[in-house]
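Whiteboard transcription, Tuesday session. T.W. wrote the C-alpha coordinates on the left side:
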Protein backbone atom coordinates (compact mmCIF):
# COMPACT_ATOMS: atom_id res chain seq x y z
CA UNK A 1 0.00 0.00 0.00
CA UNK A 2 1.40 3.43 -0.99
CA UNK A 3 2.00 6.27 1.44
CA UNK A 4 -0.88 8.15 -0.16
CA UNK A 5 -3.27 5.24 0.40
CA UNK A 6 -2.11 4.85 4.00
CA UNK A 7 -2.75 8.52 4.57
CA UNK A 8 -6.27 8.22 3.11
CA UNK A 9 -7.07 5.20 5.32
CA UNK A 10 -5.84 6.99 8.41
CA UNK A 11 -8.00 10.02 7.60
CA UNK A 12 -11.11 7.80 7.20
CA UNK A 13 -10.44 6.08 10.53
CA UNK A 14 -9.96 9.42 12.22
CA UNK A 15 -13.23 10.67 10.77
CA UNK A 16 -15.04 7.53 11.94
CA UNK A 17 -13.57 7.82 15.42
CA UNK A 18 -14.66 11.43 15.56
CA UNK A 19 -18.21 10.49 14.55
CA UNK A 20 -18.32 7.74 17.17
CA UNK A 21 -17.36 10.15 19.92
CA UNK A 22 -19.29 13.15 18.59
CA UNK A 23 -22.52 13.57 20.67
CA UNK A 24 -24.40 14.70 17.57
CA UNK A 25 -23.69 11.49 15.70
CA UNK A 26 -24.37 9.34 18.76
CA UNK A 27 -27.78 10.96 19.20
CA UNK A 28 -28.46 10.53 15.49
CA UNK A 29 -27.64 6.80 15.73
CA UNK A 30 -29.93 6.39 18.74
CA UNK A 31 -32.75 8.18 16.93
CA UNK A 32 -32.29 5.88 13.95
CA UNK A 33 -32.48 2.77 16.16
CA UNK A 34 -35.63 4.10 17.83
CA UNK A 35 -37.20 4.84 14.46
CA UNK A 36 -36.50 1.29 13.25
CA UNK A 37 -38.06 -0.08 16.44
CA UNK A 38 -41.14 2.15 16.07
CA UNK A 39 -41.60 1.08 12.48
CA UNK A 40 -41.37 -2.60 13.48
CA UNK A 41 -43.93 -2.07 16.25
CA UNK A 42 -46.24 -0.15 13.93
CA UNK A 43 -45.99 -2.84 11.26
CA UNK A 44 -46.76 -5.51 13.87
CA UNK A 45 -49.76 -3.52 15.15
CA UNK A 46 -50.97 -2.90 11.60
CA UNK A 47 -50.73 -6.62 10.80
CA UNK A 48 -52.72 -7.37 13.96
CA UNK A 49 -55.40 -4.83 12.98
CA UNK A 50 -55.63 -6.36 9.52
CA UNK A 51 -56.03 -9.81 11.08
CA UNK A 52 -58.77 -8.59 13.41
CA UNK A 53 -60.53 -6.89 10.47
CA UNK A 54 -60.38 -10.16 8.53
CA UNK A 55 -61.80 -12.08 11.49
CA UNK A 56 -64.74 -9.67 11.65
CA UNK A 57 -65.50 -10.44 8.01
CA UNK A 58 -65.01 -14.23 8.18
CA UNK A 59 -67.75 -16.86 8.13
CA UNK A 60 -67.54 -20.11 10.11
CA UNK A 61 -65.41 -21.97 7.56
CA UNK A 62 -62.91 -19.11 7.37
CA UNK A 63 -62.84 -18.74 11.15
CA UNK A 64 -62.21 -22.48 11.43
CA UNK A 65 -59.26 -22.21 9.03
CA UNK A 66 -57.84 -19.31 11.04
CA UNK A 67 -58.26 -21.34 14.22
CA UNK A 68 -56.22 -24.14 12.72
CA UNK A 69 -53.61 -21.74 11.36
CA UNK A 70 -53.21 -19.60 14.46
CA UNK A 71 -54.52 -21.39 17.55
CA UNK A 72 -53.56 -24.99 16.81
CA UNK A 73 -50.03 -23.93 15.82
CA UNK A 74 -49.80 -21.52 18.77
CA UNK A 75 -48.87 -18.69 16.42
CA UNK A 76 -47.67 -15.38 17.84
CA UNK A 77 -50.78 -13.18 17.71
CA UNK A 78 -52.07 -10.57 20.11
CA UNK A 79 -54.28 -11.49 23.03
CA UNK A 80 -57.05 -9.34 21.55
CA UNK A 81 -56.89 -11.17 18.21
CA UNK A 82 -56.87 -14.58 19.89
CA UNK A 83 -59.77 -13.67 22.17
CA UNK A 84 -61.74 -12.26 19.24
CA UNK A 85 -61.17 -15.35 17.10
CA UNK A 86 -62.37 -17.67 19.86
CA UNK A 87 -65.42 -15.48 20.57
CA UNK A 88 -66.46 -15.25 16.90
CA UNK A 89 -65.97 -18.98 16.38
CA UNK A 90 -67.85 -19.92 19.54
CA UNK A 91 -70.75 -17.69 18.59
CA UNK A 92 -71.17 -19.64 15.33
CA UNK A 93 -71.24 -22.86 17.37
CA UNK A 94 -73.86 -21.47 19.76
CA UNK A 95 -75.84 -19.60 17.11
CA UNK A 96 -79.16 -21.50 17.56
CA UNK A 97 -79.43 -20.00 21.05
CA UNK A 98 -79.47 -16.48 19.61
CA UNK A 99 -83.25 -16.64 19.17
CA UNK A 100 -83.47 -16.23 22.95
CA UNK A 101 -81.00 -14.16 24.96
CA UNK A 102 -77.53 -15.27 23.87
CA UNK A 103 -75.00 -12.63 24.88
CA UNK A 104 -71.44 -12.28 26.10
CA UNK A 105 -70.84 -11.66 29.78
CA UNK A 106 -68.17 -9.61 31.50
CA UNK A 107 -66.02 -12.75 31.45
CA UNK A 108 -64.39 -12.91 28.02
CA UNK A 109 -64.97 -16.68 27.63
CA UNK A 110 -68.52 -16.98 28.97
CA UNK A 111 -71.76 -16.67 27.00
CA UNK A 112 -75.15 -16.41 28.65
CA UNK A 113 -78.26 -18.06 27.20
CA UNK A 114 -81.81 -18.34 28.49
CA UNK A 115 -81.43 -21.50 30.56
CA UNK A 116 -77.68 -21.75 31.14
CA UNK A 117 -74.29 -20.09 30.78
CA UNK A 118 -71.63 -21.52 28.48
CA UNK A 119 -67.89 -21.31 29.13
CA UNK A 120 -65.38 -22.18 26.41
CA UNK A 121 -61.78 -23.18 27.08
CA UNK A 122 -58.86 -24.49 25.07
CA UNK A 123 -57.44 -27.84 26.13
CA UNK A 124 -53.77 -28.80 26.00
CA UNK A 125 -54.49 -30.46 22.64
CA UNK A 126 -56.09 -27.26 21.35
CA UNK A 127 -59.56 -28.79 21.37
CA UNK A 128 -62.44 -26.58 22.44
CA UNK A 129 -64.24 -27.60 25.65
CA UNK A 130 -67.74 -26.25 26.26
CA UNK A 131 -68.97 -26.28 29.86
CA UNK A 132 -72.49 -25.42 30.97
CA UNK A 133 -73.81 -23.89 34.19
CA UNK A 134 -77.56 -24.34 34.50
CA UNK A 135 -79.79 -21.65 35.96
CA UNK A 136 -81.26 -22.67 39.31
CA UNK A 137 -84.80 -22.25 40.63
CA UNK A 138 -83.67 -21.79 44.22
CA UNK A 139 -81.10 -19.05 44.79
CA UNK A 140 -79.78 -20.96 47.80
CA UNK A 141 -78.16 -23.31 45.31
CA UNK A 142 -75.36 -22.43 42.96
CA UNK A 143 -74.71 -24.70 40.01
CA UNK A 144 -71.19 -25.33 38.73
CA UNK A 145 -69.93 -25.42 35.17
CA UNK A 146 -70.23 -28.95 33.77
CA UNK A 147 -67.82 -30.00 30.97
CA UNK A 148 -70.37 -31.40 28.55
CA UNK A 149 -69.03 -31.06 24.98
CA UNK A 150 -65.50 -31.52 23.64
CA UNK A 151 -64.95 -30.29 20.07
CA UNK A 152 -61.96 -31.46 18.05
CA UNK A 153 -61.70 -28.70 15.45
CA UNK A 154 -59.09 -30.56 13.42
CA UNK A 155 -60.89 -33.89 13.13
CA UNK A 156 -64.30 -32.14 13.22
CA UNK A 157 -65.73 -34.39 15.92
CA UNK A 158 -67.84 -33.76 19.02
CA UNK A 159 -67.81 -35.94 22.12
CA UNK A 160 -70.47 -35.74 24.83
CA UNK A 161 -69.47 -36.49 28.43
CA UNK A 162 -72.23 -38.91 29.43
CA UNK A 163 -71.27 -38.76 33.10
CA UNK A 164 -72.35 -35.14 33.05
CA UNK A 165 -75.64 -36.09 31.39
CA UNK A 166 -76.39 -38.43 34.29
CA UNK A 167 -75.26 -35.72 36.69
CA UNK A 168 -77.93 -33.45 35.22
CA UNK A 169 -80.51 -36.07 36.14
CA UNK A 170 -79.15 -36.28 39.70
CA UNK A 171 -79.17 -32.49 40.13
CA UNK A 172 -82.79 -32.37 39.00
CA UNK A 173 -84.16 -35.41 40.82
CA UNK A 174 -82.08 -35.65 43.99
CA UNK A 175 -80.70 -32.17 44.60
CA UNK A 176 -83.74 -30.25 43.26
CA UNK A 177 -81.34 -27.70 41.78
CA UNK A 178 -83.69 -27.15 38.85
CA UNK A 179 -87.17 -28.28 37.92
CA UNK A 180 -88.40 -30.97 35.58
CA UNK A 181 -89.61 -28.32 33.12
CA UNK A 182 -86.18 -26.68 33.22
CA UNK A 183 -84.49 -29.98 32.46
CA UNK A 184 -86.84 -30.49 29.51
CA UNK A 185 -85.95 -27.06 28.12
CA UNK A 186 -82.24 -27.63 28.78
CA UNK A 187 -82.47 -30.93 26.91
CA UNK A 188 -84.13 -29.15 23.98
CA UNK A 189 -81.49 -26.42 23.74
CA UNK A 190 -78.55 -28.81 24.12
CA UNK A 191 -79.95 -30.88 21.27
CA UNK A 192 -80.31 -27.76 19.15
CA UNK A 193 -76.58 -27.25 19.64
CA UNK A 194 -75.83 -30.85 18.63
CA UNK A 195 -77.92 -30.35 15.48
CA UNK A 196 -75.97 -27.17 14.69
CA UNK A 197 -72.64 -28.96 15.16
CA UNK A 198 -73.75 -31.55 12.61
CA UNK A 199 -74.86 -28.86 10.18
CA UNK A 200 -71.45 -27.19 10.47
CA UNK A 201 -69.78 -30.45 9.46
CA UNK A 202 -68.96 -32.11 12.77
CA UNK A 203 -69.40 -35.80 13.45
CA UNK A 204 -71.27 -36.04 16.76
CA UNK A 205 -70.68 -39.25 18.70
CA UNK A 206 -73.72 -41.26 19.79
CA UNK A 207 -74.70 -40.31 23.32
CA UNK A 208 -77.44 -40.47 25.92
CA UNK A 209 -78.14 -36.80 25.23
CA UNK A 210 -78.95 -37.17 21.52
CA UNK A 211 -82.69 -37.08 20.84
CA UNK A 212 -82.32 -38.01 17.16
CA UNK A 213 -81.69 -41.67 17.99
CA UNK A 214 -83.82 -44.37 19.56
CA UNK A 215 -82.85 -45.47 23.04
CA UNK A 216 -81.45 -48.96 23.23
CA UNK A 217 -79.03 -48.60 26.05
CA UNK A 218 -77.52 -50.52 28.97
CA UNK A 219 -76.94 -48.57 32.16
CA UNK A 220 -75.17 -49.77 35.27
CA UNK A 221 -75.33 -47.99 38.59
CA UNK A 222 -73.06 -48.32 41.59
CA UNK A 223 -76.07 -49.02 43.78
CA UNK A 224 -77.64 -52.36 44.71
CA UNK A 225 -81.20 -53.09 43.62
CA UNK A 226 -83.15 -52.14 46.74
CA UNK A 227 -86.52 -53.71 47.50
CA UNK A 228 -88.26 -50.46 48.43
CA UNK A 229 -87.33 -48.86 45.09
CA UNK A 230 -88.48 -51.94 43.20
CA UNK A 231 -91.74 -51.91 45.18
CA UNK A 232 -92.37 -48.28 44.22
CA UNK A 233 -91.85 -49.13 40.53
CA UNK A 234 -94.19 -52.11 40.87
CA UNK A 235 -96.92 -49.97 42.48
CA UNK A 236 -96.59 -47.28 39.80
CA UNK A 237 -96.77 -49.88 37.02
CA UNK A 238 -99.81 -51.57 38.54
CA UNK A 239 -101.64 -48.26 39.04
CA UNK A 240 -101.27 -47.28 35.36
CA UNK A 241 -103.38 -49.19 32.83
CA UNK A 242 -100.79 -48.70 30.05
CA UNK A 243 -97.93 -50.15 32.15
CA UNK A 244 -97.17 -53.67 33.31
CA UNK A 245 -94.61 -55.32 35.59
CA UNK A 246 -93.32 -58.89 35.22
CA UNK A 247 -90.68 -60.94 36.97
CA UNK A 248 -88.85 -62.83 34.22
CA UNK A 249 -86.00 -64.39 36.20
CA UNK A 250 -84.04 -64.42 39.43
CA UNK A 251 -83.74 -60.74 40.40
CA UNK A 252 -84.67 -59.89 36.81
CA UNK A 253 -87.74 -57.78 35.92
CA UNK A 254 -89.47 -56.31 32.89
CA UNK A 255 -91.51 -53.11 33.00
CA UNK A 256 -93.73 -52.58 29.96
CA UNK A 257 -94.49 -48.95 29.21
CA UNK A 258 -96.75 -47.16 26.78
CA UNK A 259 -95.89 -47.12 23.05
CA UNK A 260 -94.39 -50.61 23.45
CA UNK A 261 -91.35 -49.33 25.30
CA UNK A 262 -89.64 -51.65 27.77
CA UNK A 263 -87.29 -51.36 30.70
CA UNK A 264 -85.42 -54.42 31.99
CA UNK A 265 -84.10 -54.32 35.55
CA UNK A 266 -81.56 -56.81 36.83
CA UNK A 267 -79.41 -57.19 39.92
CA UNK A 268 -75.84 -58.38 39.23
CA UNK A 269 -72.98 -58.50 41.70
CA UNK A 270 -74.70 -56.07 44.06
CA UNK A 271 -75.22 -53.54 41.27
CA UNK A 272 -78.31 -52.46 39.37
CA UNK A 273 -78.40 -53.00 35.62
CA UNK A 274 -80.94 -51.24 33.45
CA UNK A 275 -81.72 -51.82 29.79
CA UNK A 276 -83.97 -49.21 28.17
CA UNK A 277 -85.66 -49.93 24.84
CA UNK A 278 -87.70 -47.02 23.44
CA UNK A 279 -89.07 -49.15 20.58
CA UNK A 280 -87.43 -47.00 17.89
CA UNK A 281 -88.85 -43.82 19.40
CA UNK A 282 -86.22 -41.10 19.18
CA UNK A 283 -85.54 -39.58 22.56
CA UNK A 284 -82.69 -38.66 24.87
CA UNK A 285 -82.14 -40.18 28.29
CA UNK A 286 -83.16 -36.82 29.81
CA UNK A 287 -86.46 -36.96 27.95
CA UNK A 288 -87.01 -40.56 29.04
CA UNK A 289 -86.36 -40.02 32.74
CA UNK A 290 -88.40 -36.81 32.94
CA UNK A 291 -91.35 -38.79 31.53
CA UNK A 292 -90.73 -41.82 33.77
CA UNK A 293 -89.11 -40.38 36.92
CA UNK A 294 -89.89 -43.48 39.01
CA UNK A 295 -86.90 -45.21 37.34
CA UNK A 296 -84.41 -42.51 38.35
CA UNK A 297 -83.56 -43.94 41.84
CA UNK A 298 -82.20 -47.04 40.11
CA UNK A 299 -79.43 -44.95 38.56
CA UNK A 300 -78.79 -41.85 40.67
CA UNK A 301 -79.35 -41.05 44.32
CA UNK A 302 -78.47 -38.33 46.79
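and on the right, the sequence the group agreed on:
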Amino acid sequence: MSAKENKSTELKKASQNKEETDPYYKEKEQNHAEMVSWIASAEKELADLRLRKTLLEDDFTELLNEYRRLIVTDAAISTVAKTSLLAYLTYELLKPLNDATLKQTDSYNVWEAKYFSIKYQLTDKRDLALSFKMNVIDTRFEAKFMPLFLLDLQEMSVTVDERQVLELIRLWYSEKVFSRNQLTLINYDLNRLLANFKQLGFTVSASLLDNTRALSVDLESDFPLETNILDDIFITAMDATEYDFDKIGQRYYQVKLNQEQNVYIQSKKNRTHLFIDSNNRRRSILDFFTHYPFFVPLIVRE
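Someone added at the bottom: Residues 23-57 form the longest helix (35 residues).
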